[in-house]
Amino acid sequence: MMRALDRKLIRELGQSKAQSLAIVLVIASGVAVFVMSLNTLGFLRATRDAYYDRYRFGHLFASVRRAPMSESERLAEISGVAAVQARVVSDVTLDVPGLAEPAVGRLISLPEQSGVGLNRVHLRRGRMPDPDRAGEVLVSDAFFEANSLALGDTIEAVLNGRLQTLRIVGVALSPEYVIQIRGGDLLPDEKRFGVFWMPRRQMEAAFNMEGAFNDVSLRLLRGANADEVVDRVDAVLKPYGSVGAIDRDQHLSARFLADELKQLRATGLVAPAVFLCVAAFLLNIVLSRRIHTHRSIIATLKAFGYTNIEIGWHYLESSLLVSSLGALAGVVAGLWMGNGLARLYSEFYRFPTFVYRPDYRVIIAAVVISLLAAVVGSLRSVRAATRLAPAEAMQPIAPPIYRRSWLERLGIHAWLPVTARMILRGLQRRPVGALFSSIGIAFSVAVMVMTGFFADALDHLIEFQYAVAQRHDVQVLFREVTSPRVRHDLRNLPGVNQVEPFRAIGVNLRHGHRDHRTSILGLEPNRQLYRLLNTEAKPVRLPPSGVVLSDKLADLLGVVPGNDITVEVLEGEELVYQLPVAGVAKEYAGTNAYMDRYELHRLMKETDVLSGAFLAVDPSHRVELYRQLKQTPQVSSVSIKSASIQQFRDTIAANQMTMQSFTVFFAAVIAVGVVYNTARISLEERSRELATLRVIGFTRGEVSAILLGELSILTVVAIPLGFCIGFGFCAAMVIGFDSELYRIPLVIHPASYARAALVTIAASLVSGLLVRHRLDRLDLVEVLKSRE
Amino acid sequence: MGEVDVQALRGVDLDLYAGEFTVMLGPSGSGKSTLLNILGGLDVPTTGKVIYRGMELTTASQLQLTYFRRECVGFVFQFYNLIPSLTALENVSLVTDVAKDPMSALEALELVNLQDRKDHFPSQLSGGQQQRVAIARAIAKRPDVLLCDEPTGALDASTGITVLEAITRINRELGTTTAVITHNATIGQIADRVVTMRDGRIAEDIRNADRADLQELRW
Description:
A: 6-stranded mixed β-barrel, 54% helix, B: two-stranded antiparallel sheet, 6 helices
């Protein structure tokens, strides 16, 4: 048997369906993002940790030029080290069927026995390669899929200067390459960078590495001091050309994945907070209004003997009900969206198993948080209901007190039509409520600004880094440092217009107690292709002496131009120099240092030797050039800028459409939720006034102008406010994303601001028209009869 | 629960003449408010015709009714219905701003003796003063018809008389056809004509031979 009070609750909710629905949607949006992000985060993290653990992903990684296998035993003896895997790893140029450009293959040696050692592979299809058969390999599944390969396909590769045929016998995954990205690249290019596993015996033979290794991974014992182990590993490997061991923080794939999880967590916490704040605010205004109109009902209930707690609970219940509906819808939507997000992730991040499962803890947390938001939003008005003295509540409410607005007191009074004065005075009577409404709408603008920001920042980054600063088309790396003759060889390749060679040296840079491992790139003093630019996109000169640092590196070392830094060369004779910082260059990826190439040679006490070159290429000769590069023995890897960028843009574009439609929906939900509720309450508060105006001869249009005028002002104020909040959010994200691998520029185009404003204006307009529809149906006679 | 039809008026046949001061009496539920709403173009009868100077209100569109109210009718309500965010003068301006040939808002306030209170907001005025502002608002457009629904219903006797004073003065000086609804029979004494309603019908329609003086009224 339902109590009368409960019936009242349900009927009242029924009467304010549209308003309740708007709030339900706002809560549902917040809960959906929360569930989607945190559920995906939880299972992604669990999947990753299980993967890392089960396939024995290393904790430390180092590469050397060539070290005898006996050294790997020395590494195993270091205290804190649990296991060591010494391997042969080499990047080679590939000629993939159906791909015009040369691709890069990372060849990794497989231990003789399968299922031992570190960084184990997970065989997804096919079989393990036979150590006795030349050229059999496993290929990473991302590359396999991107190039539509089949088992049994062959790929031509240049191994150590010799052309060899690789036969694909299996498709595999490895915890080392959850995301398949190459060092120095900002973006993954699955089509042109693939990982291959080849039996160790075959690798040794191909690269003259019998009884030796050039790459090592270590797993640490629980509780081992990683820094100490790194120092001891470096001491062992330095003589063999190690530039220092890195941990998972610097491991590309691991770092990308960790950053992704960090971002997911931020999304899962910040976005719901915004939505639930808006929902709490809406519940507050709706409930305040309801309790205001229910004064006499509350008084009557109290007169009948209902306790304050019963009455307070009765009103709180309505908020809790709305909030529960929102939470329910949000959980369902969140799980559905999470499934989509998981599918998206499974394209980027390769795991052996990727089973999406709802996490009940996240769901319970979502429900609890949304109920909490409902309580917070209702507290003020519920308290007002309980404090109402019955006798007082029976009295009619005194007419609201209005004053001339300060705008009018400034003297523009005479200019304003009477209806405009009504609007202004209405806003001024409730400045806090109006401000909150505007802030609510502003959040909708901010959400849209953030969406625009991602695209704008990416555009700017690609434009600045890959078009304005780096103007080369192709970058080649040489297998070994090569004499300058190669420059002419490259120049003579078909379609090559310009060649800018460079020298790269591994160094440790030190300033005070801070230090950072990176490479110094020795560039031509007069360059056309690889330019260094400052924040205003003006070229930074490379002086004859001194180093130019990327802005992030300068930041890490805490130096400004004019400071001296210590440069410890990590190769060859381990020379140490004090060099002045001559300038800082703006870069969105990496932490490079730059020098005049000839000065670098002088410091290194070496002759004119080269590590690689940047090429400018005539597009009409590309195919021919690529064909020849695939077969050039000195070249160990080729990266083609435009292809990578195109690939990345394509991937992003597909996902962005989905993301954009979601955010537009969310922004619209906030805007409609706030505007519609504000308008409805304004309509209820003023229904008597507006009906009077209609009776004395105002047309519907004239009367709605008053109501919609108020909304327009709230929206107009909200837009610049939303721009500011949105900018703030973006700035926070820029700081959040800042890492040694990449930075995001704080760039928001005017078009994005305009789009944000337009979506919000459209949403406001729709809600305004919905309310106008109600206004048109206002029962004039009914409103005039009652006393308020 | 579906809609329930309630018949408010049955077979009402009534002519109101220009310049006449009519008081409509009747207990609550007798249909007098419904009649007034129909006369003022707020409501439309389900059957029958209402003709105002040759214009048939019963077939007029919503917009036509709006303009009828805007140009021809002045309304005074029991609970004044002033806009709380506007001063006395501004409440009157609300009408003079949109009317065709209005008097000035101040003039209208002078007619109800409230020129001194023109800059007060409703919350700063007494009930009687608020009702007089409402009358000024109703007559500022020089309406042909002034319809008052229980104008003294919420007021004490002496304040009620000042309000009736204002209404009779308008009727006398501007020649506005005036209809006042009330359940207070005493007020009938000051009218040209008293129409009494009962159960949705006109029960009595009496012309006063001579109108009583306002000062003689007591209730």
